[in-house]
Amino acid sequence: MDIFITTGKGEGNTKLSAFDQALFKAGIANYNLLPLSSVIPPNVNLKIENINWNNREHGHKLYVVISRIAEDVPGKEVWAGVGWVQVKNEDSRGLFVEHQAESEEKLIELIENSLNDMVVYREGEFTKPQYVTCGIKCVDKPVSAIVAAVYKSESWE
What we know:
- By secondary structure, the chain is of the alpha+beta class.
- It has one domain: Pyruvoyl-Dependent Histidine Decarboxylase, subunit B (Pyruvoyl-Dependent Histidine Decarboxylase, Chain B, 3-Layer(bba) Sandwich).
- It contains two helices and nine strands, in the order E-H-E-E-E-E-E-E-H-E-E.
- The strands form two sheets. The protein has a five-stranded mixed sheet. A four-stranded antiparallel sheet has the order 3-7-6-8, covered by helices on one side.
- It is flat, with a radius of gyration of 16 Å.
């Protein structure tokens, strides 16, 4: 199974429409998103790649670990990020974390601190934290940034 790490940023007249544009740019705008609790199952391939599934399966369920943030104050920046660690063995199971912050530096610090804490009480030797970030500065309209780890889609039938 592949899990895709995709990003998007958007601008709109409202925070919600900015979020929708960010979803569109990440390639997942026409799905019903179902957030997951951040566990990477065994035997998956992580692919850092923006996908374009916007016209693929309108209205289907999409399982994701997602970091999202929006801002409407001119001059402020927002950053979203997803980080992960995996066990250093053949099954590559692991953990995701999702954070938001006002700077990329703070975001990376939050991601690394969370992952370093979480591996202390779990079995196995884990990789160093890795992450994907996405940020945007509010100029005159609301903005949004997202990073999503996309697991799979399902129909409602």
